[in-house]
Design goal:
The protein contains 7 helices and 5 strands. With about 140 residues, it is of the alpha/beta class. The protein has one domain (about 5-135): Rossmann fold. This is Methylglyoxal synthase.
Amino acid sequence: MTARMQVAFIAHDRKKDEMVNFVIAYEHVFRHHDLYATGTTGKRIMEQTGLTVHRFMSGPLGGDQQIGALVAENVMDLIIFLRDPLMAQPHEPDINALLRLCDVYGIPVATNVATAELLVKALERGEFAWRELVHKYKPEDWRS
């Protein structure tokens, strides 16, 4: 098992049940890490599990951007963002900005349960040790 990792959960409305079920299935893994989530998603996870989750605002009210700020500050290690690809989201620019930041800073992000399961299995096996090295450096140190 690696050191405590910072894991964020975001789920669109029609994916919240799926997210809660996923977290319940892997509660034994997540209890060893620091957890974050957008408002309602975090509340539902805490109500259905014994996990403590630091909750941000709802996604449309800025929660996605709050998590994005942690990505830009090299704090976040993994994001599970269950998106609803069949429903237009009023805060789509915020979603795209968060995903872009994950790409810029090399943060693994899963947008469906299949990918989330692969990442959580890697987390469980301790394969996120490379993130411990990244935490030693500040984003401004990456610039040449």
